[in-house]
Amino acid sequence: MRAAVCAVAVAIGLAAHPAFAQTNPSAAVFWKAVQARCDATAAKPASVLGQRIAQTAIEEFARFDGHRIDSNGRLFHFGLTEAEQDQEHGDDRPTRLGDLGWWRVMKYWRAVYGTDIADKLEARGYRDASTATDDAQAVELLRVDIGDLLRAADGVTDPVAREVLRETALRAAIIDTPWSAAFVSYVVKQSGVSAKAFQFANAHRVYIYDAFATSTAELTGQADERIYRACPVATTRPRAGDLICFQRETALAGTSEMAVRERIRAELAGSPDARTVRRTHCDVVASIDTPARKMYVIGGNFLQGVTAKKLNLRDSMRFSVAQKGHCGGPGDWSLPQPSGNALNAPDLTKNCSLSDKKWFVLLQLR
């Protein structure tokens, strides 16, 4: 999610795969055919698997005591975070492992890597930052696999110090390694889905691109075992168990959702290493409140915890891409600014909803 991307235009992305572009249907033809399939599925009640995925997400959210965001995009409950040890008490009473935020996130990573996670996650540091005192000093980023830290900790003879060092290394890795895709992988895997049907991955883009490939395969009559297809986000009714995704690419900040989808479609024929829509996030659709025209989605590593968002639907029960909120205007925020630092003043004329993102695709459970 945090990897750098190459800022190239959609047209360049299309030109990079001329053979694919020549044989691929036009955007209008392709998405019209995909939309028909998406609509046919959306007209049916959520499947048993979809309900199970949704329920798994809800139960894990409850176990995590996750954050809650209302339909105006405002945080009204701040729950457990990834690095916390125990939010209830800080004394020496025994603590349940399930009350440890970092321990719960380790469960998500095991859904992706099994028990072999030591050399899959990394911790980060900065050259001499632990001893430097000048806040203006530029420092070099350092990276190390936590396997190296765990092996170093194993050399400590005192058992208490050894265990604390091991847990410190793991907590550092949890903080420094994005885990939102691991959360989705955990939820889907816990719901009984096999690796053939869903790639349990450390990045959302893996199963986003898979879903686009599935939508393409369906239109050409090819067999595909994957359980999700890619559907237009604003014109497809969501159901429990679907995934809804946004992108955070700086280079695509002003790009329409359709253009982002077309970029991904154009890149399917190329190498996975050349895919440019990399910084993404997906939430599980957990519940649809039809009378209120709202839906609840649950995702991981949002505000450093598991978060439920209440999102707005339109009268047609389709997703409202513009999840707007309002901060109340400049008169509602009168905190004086630091001297000489007025550039940090908040712009309260802009939307301040935590749910206002670059939503671009619904991954529909087939």
Q: Can you characterise this structure?
A:
The protein is built from 10 helices and 10 strands. The protein has 2 domains: 10-77 and 180-329 and 346-365, no CATH class; 97-176, no CATH class. With 366 residues, it is of the alpha+beta class. α4 crosses α8 and α5 crosses α7. The protein is globular. The relative contact order is 0.19. The model is unreliable at 1-23 (pLDDT under 50).
What structural keywords apply?
single chain, two-stranded antiparallel sheet, 10 strands, globular, disordered N terminus
Total number of strands = 10
The total count of helices amounts to 10
Strand order of the biggest β-sheet: 2-1-9-8-7-6-10-5
Q: Roughly how many Å apart are the termini?
A: 26 Å
The whole-number mean of residue pLDDT values reads 88
The helix content, as a percent range, equals 25-40%
Strand content: 15-25%
- Major sheet: size, sense and barrel closure? 8 strands, mixed
